[in-house]
Amino acid sequence: MLLFYLNINLLWAAPADELSSLLNKTIAFSGQFSQSVYDNKSQLIEEANGEVVFKKPHFFKWIYQAPHQNQIIGDGETVYIYDPDLSQVIMSKFSQSKNNNPANIFFLNNIEEYFKVTKILIEDEIWYRCESKSKDIDYQSIEISFNEDKIHGMRVVDSLQNKIIINFLNILQNRNIDEASFLFNVPDNVEVIRN
């Protein structure tokens, strides 16, 4: 009976270990992304695309190119959300944005501490489903797929059952990325909102 119990624990632990290994291999990556947002009735709300850059321990950039040219940039201390159409920058402390940003999963060292991880099959592709152990997170689950150890896709279900599907393209992994490229200079004549 004890042996059976131990074997079950090993089976449950395996997906978290696999995902941790894949994430630990990813020190930095850059490429393009396409994003589709669906409501809780699976109706398409919005499509977008752009460029993405990540570097551990805590640097990231989402540069939306269409349909709107928004930017989300994190320099490790501050997260900037820049909307040129509104001439507005929202600034938040990096520590405050963690619960709102599913992409922070890339920065975790011990994923099993924060998420229950299971392995699932979607359209003949292996995905890792991560369900938060905390009630303070603004989303229900994150699903991540890899292709040849490179991040390939991401699906996020938020607290309202909306779904965000992101496909990553032309990913360059573990190239040298200058940390200075994550610095954001607030443009002149824009409204600055500090959270």
UniProtKB/TrEMBL annotation:
Q: Name one Pfam family in it.
A: LolA
Source species of the chain: beta proteobacterium KB13
Lineage runs: Bacteria, Pseudomonadati, Pseudomonadota, Betaproteobacteria, Nitrosomonadales
State the Gene Ontology BP annotations: lipoprotein localization to outer membrane; lipoprotein transport
Asked whether the keyword Lipoprotein is assigned, the reply is yes
Q: Name one GO cellular component term.
A: outer membrane-bounded periplasmic space
Q: Where in the cell is it found?
A: Periplasm
Q: Which UniProt keywords apply?
A: Chaperone, Lipoprotein, Periplasm, Protein transport, Signal, Transport
Instruction: Spell out the family assignment given in the record's similarity comment.
Output: Belongs to the LolA family.
Name the record gives this protein? Outer-membrane lipoprotein carrier protein
Q: In terms of domain of life, where is this protein from?
A: Bacteria
Q: What role is this protein assigned?
A: Participates in the translocation of lipoproteins from the inner membrane to the outer membrane. Only forms a complex with a lipoprotein if the residue after the N-terminal Cys is not an aspartate (The Asp acts as a targeting signal to indicate that the lipoprotein should stay in the inner membrane).
Entry keyword annotation includes Methyltransferase: no
Q: Which Gene3D superfamilies has this protein been placed in?
A: Lipoprotein localisation LolA/LolB/LppX
Describe the subunit structure: Monomer.
